[in-house]
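Checklist before submission:
- one chain only
- standard amino acids only
- sequence pasted in full

Submission:
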Amino acid sequence: MAITLTDVTLTYPDGTDRLTALDRVNLHVPGGTIAAVTGASGSGKSSLLAVAATLIRPDSGTVVLETDSATTDLVTLSRRAAATARRNSMGIVFQQPNLIPSLTAVEQLEVTARLGGPKRASRSETSTRAQELLEAVGLAEHAHKRPAQLSGGQRQRVNIARALMNDPALLVVDEPTSALDSERGAAIIALITTIARDHQAATILVTHDPTHLHRMDAVYRMTDGRLTPLATPVPADA
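Returned file contents:
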């Protein structure tokens, strides 16, 4: 499993001109590895995630997703096919969990499974997988709580577990620690790195926090739509 972006360019209308959000971006992320993307606000990081997740179609370039069953250029997909790819092959973790207020933690995951997935599982299989993922993120005892009964860090962990419900080939993560203190943020990053590697998901993670970069397999900086590889920082205690 892997995702490969090649010469991806994306522009937006800007009055009578066009603004370049992504400028011939190249990125390869193998399964089980995490590529972190840093950069100032407005540099193109969110646009990169949106293109990788088929939420925006680029002007040019290719976005090739390799799964166990197929190799697909996501840019060529119709809107319906792209939505299917997101349900079946991707997990998306936004800054805000966007959980459904009326559903418990386990129900959030079960609904995701019923919306799609490579193959439909039985209700009992779906429930079992949801419980296993909640246990993996340390929320087994909170499975039947609704979002209002959970802390911010707990809601984000539900968000991560939900993104993994259909065993995605690609995991796209946008600023997962932005609303958390340093201790909870470190725990979330540790959780994402462990799960991404255990599930062999190719992971693109946008972050402003440099303290977690040494945990990543590769680090890139986005500047005015251009992506540049950086040396991965070495932990202070290494």
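Reviewer check: The two ends are 30 Å apart (CA to CA).
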